[in-house]
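Backbone shape codes:
===
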Amino acid sequence: MIHSHDALKLRYSFSDFLFYICLLSVPVITAVLAIYKNSVWWTIAFAGLFVSVTALILRFYCTRCPHYTREGKTLTCIFFWGLPKFFKKRPGKLDAVDMVVTFGATALLLVFPLYWLLMEPGLLIVYLLSLVGFGAAIYRHECKRCIYFECPANRVPEAIKNP
């Protein structure tokens, strides 16, 4: 028997988007506060990096996801709501370049604020705990019912993927 919390998530609602964006805002705001306390210029650099990494993730990861490749000119997923689909759809499995760019860019974004966060131990704790909480929420609530079966984090049981 498949319960609603185990069923595949075919479409997201705006409230799903708000939930995850609120979770994600905690480490982002924490990083910005730590950097801004020391340098406005590095804060601007971090904002630029954030926008650049977002564009890279959209291009190299999201363009393969069924939520991106479906009909419509705008995205409606848990990370992007109403954003135009800037890049060509590329359904299918992530290749080596997709993986290196996606995970490398994400790692760079996560590591960048550590220099300033190490000067603010309280903010560092909030940053790390909020990242763990965000990752755990995604992994626990999304990966086991995600329709992007080719994603390396997908945890949908084989019985549901191939009934």
About this structure: DSSP finds seven helices and two strands in the chain. The mean pLDDT is 94.
